[in-house]
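Subject: design request, 516 residues
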């Protein structure tokens, strides 16, 4: 009979300073056997009261008990039948230790009373992985390269949000990945990432297991030839350091990320101060994840983030802008995101014009708006949005939108259709931004929404290009070329906005001659 450790793919990480134990030395070991040679395990439907409270990843049975000998233990649904026997008995005075784990089966957790098992967060045997991602992983594995799904897609899937864009981490070097696949893109070969295109030309990122050789707070110099656990150790937060094997259905969580997901807590991997010093952008990522997932930041991680905030000055404006925009698009609470930026010190470094904590609390608007345009939200949350977005180096088009929002007018002067037409002509395409800003500020629907829709549906001329005459027509009619042509066109547009029936070529040429 072939015997193997239930977590044969992984030797657990023990408490800091403690030596690693072999399976035989591990007092919480479960040994499993199966004829196929695949690691399988059983979960108890109920444990005796003397089993005590222990972590899900360390099941064991009392001396003399095993699933094969008792009807109280039932095998996992769909798992191969196997006989299990416990490892050496746990000493009575030994307390179970908290640490990471690896399983090829769902995790269960004991109730705190020790009176049996109560499911809190159960890891699924399988999660839905797109076939294209599975095909890439299978090809790498068949070539002898260990390959896992990692990153935010794994985290969000465990939180109940089905994902399609899974990143892969592999022991293959970038050169080996490029040799295995015909269509690849050098996404970031310098940092070990290669993009693999599937048959639909969708790009999937494949990154080599790596560790940081040196960092400067902005970028890292990496080296390959490390294990998955070492690769996970360089990641920012425990909830992002969970790996899933798409072929074996195995989980790897050496830093307790699943436990943090269950507790709704954001915690840095290892020493939080060291993690933030490696890349100060992680401070902003911590704020974004906390606001997006509605988590609490673990106290030590929070203090380290606040201490590292002055280092944000080293970051490029583009990286800060991307994090700011992502935060605005994904946060569950605008108030909380702004409060985190203020209290962490990030706003003082990059966006000192951001609302104060008092202004955030007094804001009457919708805290979770449907409209998530970062330009409009920045105009809402900052006293000088043009200065903020100029520093963050947005595009010229985005900056022009911001200038229009600041210039106004923010709403029509009256309630008549003519007032709405005049306003639409004055804001020159920024009407939707103003309507969104109104709703964000007040929490109410834009009062002129129906009138705006009616004017647009009628096709009323609102720009000079909508007029029935052009500058060339006016010059041909005898109006001198030069600035006067543009001024006449503006006068004609104002007339047509007030009375759309005047938008005819002959009538406008006649009016132009009168104006001159």
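Subject: RE: design request

Done. Sequence follows.
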């Amino acid at each position: 009979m072939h015997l193997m450790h239930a977590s044969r793919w992984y030797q657990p990480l023990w408490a800091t300073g403690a030596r690693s134990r072999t399976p035989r030395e591990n007092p919480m070991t479960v040994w499993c056997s199966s004829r196929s040679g695949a690691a399988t395990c059983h979960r108890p439907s109920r444990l005796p009261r003397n089993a005590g409270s222990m972590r899900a990843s360390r099941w064991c049975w009392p001396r003399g008990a095993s699933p094969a000998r008792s009807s109280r233990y039932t095998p996992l649904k769909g798992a191969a039948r196997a006989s299990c026997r416990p490892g050496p008995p746990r000493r009575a005075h030994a307390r179970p230790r908290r640490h990471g784990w690896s399983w090829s089966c769902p995790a269960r957790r004991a109730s705190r009373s020790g009176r049996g098992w109560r499911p809190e967060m159960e890891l699924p045997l399988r999660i839905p992985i797109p076939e294209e991602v599975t095909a890439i992983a299978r090809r790498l594995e068949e070539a002898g390269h260990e390959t896992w799904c990692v990153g935010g897609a794994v985290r969000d899937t465990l939180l109940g949000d089905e994902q399609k864009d899974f990143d892969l981490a592999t022991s293959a070097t970038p050169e080996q990945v490029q040799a295995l696949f015909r269509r690849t893109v050098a996404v970031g070969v310098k940092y070990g990432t290669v993009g693999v295109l599937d048959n639909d030309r969708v790009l999937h990122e494949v990154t080599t297991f790596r560790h940081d050789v040196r960092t400067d707070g902005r970028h890292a110099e990496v080296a390959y030839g490390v294990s998955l656990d070492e690769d996970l150790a360089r990641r920012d937060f425990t909830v992002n350091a969970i790996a899933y094997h798409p072929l074996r259905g195995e989980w790897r969580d050496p830093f307790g990320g699943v436990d943090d997901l269950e507790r709704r807590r954001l915690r840095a991997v290892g020493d939080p101060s060291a993690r933030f010093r490696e890349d100060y952008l992680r401070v902003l990522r911590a704020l974004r994840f906390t606001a997006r997932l509605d988590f609490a930041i673990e106290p030590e991680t929070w203090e380290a983030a606040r201490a590292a905030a002055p280092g944000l000055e080293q970051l490029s404006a583009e990286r800060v802008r991307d994090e700011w925009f992502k935060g605005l698009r994904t946060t569950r609470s605008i108030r909380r995101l702004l409060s985190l930026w203020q209290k962490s010190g990030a706003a003082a470094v990059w966006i000192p014009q951001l609302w104060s904590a008092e202004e955030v609390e007094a804001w009457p608007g919708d805290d979770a708006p449907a409209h998530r345009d970062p330009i409009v939200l920045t105009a809402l949350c900052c006293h000088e949005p043009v200065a903020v977005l100029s520093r963050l180096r947005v595009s010229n088009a985005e900056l022009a939108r911001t200038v229009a929002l600041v210039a106004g007018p923010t709403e029509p002067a009256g309630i008549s259709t003519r007032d709405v037409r005049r306003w639409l002509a004055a804001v020159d395409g920024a009407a939707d931004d103003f309507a969104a800003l109104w709703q964000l500020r007040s929490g109410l629907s834009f009062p002129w929404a129906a009138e705006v829709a009616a004017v647009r549906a009628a096709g009323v001329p609102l720009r000079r290009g909508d007029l029935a005459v052009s500058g060339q027509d006016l010059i041909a009619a005898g109006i001198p070329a030069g600035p006067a042509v543009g001024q006449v066109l503006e006068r004609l547009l104002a007339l047509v906005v007030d009375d759309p029936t005047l938008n005819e070529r002959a009538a406008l040429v006649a009016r132009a001659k009168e104006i001159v």
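The CA atoms of residues 96 and 334 lie 41 Å apart.
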